[in-house]
Amino acid sequence: MSEAVSISSEGLTARIDPFGAELQSLIDSDGREYMSDADPAYWTGRAPLLFPIVGGLRRDTYHFDGFTYHLPRHGFARRSTFELVEHERELAIFRLTDSEETREVFPFPFALHMEFALSGSTLSMTASVVNPGEDELHFSFGYHPAFAWPLPGGGEKLAHELVFEALEPAPIRRLDEKGLIAFSEDSPVKGGQMALRHEDYEADAMIWDELASRRLSYRSPDGPSLDIAFPEMPYLGIWQKPGANFICIEPWAGHADPADFDGDFRDKPGVMPLQPGAERSFRMDVTVRPR
């Protein structure tokens, strides 16, 4: 196993595993943990990075320029060891680049830099995708953090809620049994607020693909809250395993295949092009607000 890297500010300490550049822990100055307990009875993930796809592909397969490739759900970054390229008290930067192994399943040169920076009570995570090749790079990216539910000292679990920046009246999407986008439902957001209930996730994730908000608050009735901002991310997934002590709040730039999609990868909804020599960044800020 790789040794976790820690960074600290006056308000928070974060610990990141180079395997997957995955955030493992976020603790405040009082020692309270805001990440999932990773109970193996439910899910051992804590905050995987989703690259070069978000969600699943039809038959775990995609087509590009007449060739067929295979990728598992959410891609390979979460199962790859990143190189630590910079480490200071409040900062850690990791890097993943293409290799012979990645090119067998994803035929693009790339560099994925993942920066974790603390300032006071805010953790800023910034993923930067660089195209060092001579042709367009096509990809998606997403965050998948699992926060503690209930929040530490937060009181009644089912009294927690999400408060969105906007009203969010648009329908949400649901996945079929193959993990593909297939159904729509009425928005669960009422007046900008959404209650958290285990039964809502028996049908897998809730997906917003017409998202108006770029920030939300995850609030407890009697304790802290988390303010979460994701300015470059147009989609959102909310997910958990019913009964578990976590809730995943997942800003995405990409999503699973629609159930009827079988075209070229460059035409896949949620995939974006990146020109040779270009870079594109995706930030997610988590601010802890004790009560």
Explained architecture:
The chain has 291 residues and is mostly beta strands. The protein has a single domain, classed as Beta-galactosidase, Chain A, domain 5 (Distorted Sandwich), CATH 2.70.98. 2% of the residues lie in helices and 42% in strands. The protein has 1 helix and 24 strands. Strand 1 and strand 2 form a beta hairpin. The radius of gyration is 18 Å and the shape is globular.
Quick synopsis:
With 291 residues, the protein is mainly β.
SSE order, one letter for each helix or strand: EEEEEEEEHEEEEEEEEEEEEEEEE
Helix content: under 10%
Q: How are the strands of the largest sheet arranged?
A: 7-8-9-10-24-20-19-14-17
- The rounded Rg comes to 18 Å
The CATH architecture comes to: Distorted Sandwich
The CATH topology is Beta-galactosidase, Chain A, domain 5
Tell me the strand percentage band.
Answer: 35-45%
Overall number of structural domains: 1
Count of helix runs: 1
Q: What's the main sheet like?
A: 9 strands, antiparallel
Strand segment count = 24
Uncertain parts = none
State the name of the first-level CATH class. Answer: Mainly Beta
Q: Could you state the oligomeric state of the chains shown? A: single chain
> What is the SS-derived class?
mainly beta
Average of pLDDT:
97
